[in-house]
Amino acid sequence: MAKIKQNSPVLFFYNNSKKWLAKISKNESFHTHIGILKHSDAIGKEYGSKLITNKDKYVYLLEPTMYDYVMRIQHGTQIVYPKDIGYIIARAGIGDGQKILEIGTGSGSLTSFVASVVKPRGHVYTFDVDEKFMKIAEKNIKKAGVSKYVTQHNLDLKTAKKMPLEDMDVALIDLGDPWVVIPQVRKMLKGSGSIFAICPTMNQLEKLTMALVENEFTDIESTEHIIRNIEAREGKTRHSFQGIGHTTYLCFARKAFFGRSARKTTEKPPSVETEKKPSTKTVKKSTKATKKSASKTTKKTTKTTKKPAKKTTKKSS
Ligand SMILES: C[S@@+](CC[C@H](N)C(=O)[O-])C[C@H]1O[C@@H](n2cnc3c(N)ncnc32)[C@H](O)[C@@H]1O
To answer: Model-level pTM?
Structure first.
């Protein structure tokens, strides 16, 4: 039986829109519209028990899940929501023991969730360029209890000359221009490794898909996930009037070896519809942009809780 004690995490659950997440500290209490919730009253109770307030209302003392942490995360940036995270984990094949590369830590929502899936043997190496967001993410990752499985780096991989990682199982990208980092990500991914990127608009999705084809990725799929809440009550179950509209598009692919260099130039890449070669003009543009910005490399790595798997052996990527 799991009993609540000092420092236990607890979700004080009143209803779906009123719930409070806290770490139990015996001298603390908080005032709510349903009365005062005293932490000391929770100590010694089993998770799932009721706690009565001074206004004779009650909350349930629930053990928080990763969903609860992510939904109550401090937002520094837009975050990836559980409705998308579930599919990302399934579609990218994320599991225990994997090495994950993430570009665009943001508030650490996706980082925390993915770390909770790859732990205890796996690790998330996450990169961001904004120290302010990195601090927010660090706090959120700590609150979610997965700091041990995450290493945060302050490094712009767009301009980095040497890739700091190799043989990654999965790469997750959440930046405004994900197509720019595809060549770099390719170098760090193992063969057939999964890549996933967030694209809030269709224009971004198009540019990304073209870069994926150009950089020899296959199994390309783009999806949008809409969740509909149902209000289920006896005799009057119906869709909720509230709901989230469009949030973002998700794009998945796998690293492959098209063998273009070994083929004659007239030969076409594999015959999947989405794997048509993009117009050279656009691809050249993004390649130029990458090269141009490569001269301004900033290298700074913070908070290394675990060493990245850097080896100097060069591999064909
Ligand atoms: C939308 S947020 C990511 C949100 C995150 N997926 C989450 O669930 O909390 C995008 C992040 O990408 C970062 N970013 C922008 N350009 C970057 C770059 N070149 N390398 C790494 N991170 C970058 C921004 O600082 C920002 O924190």
So the answer is: 0.82
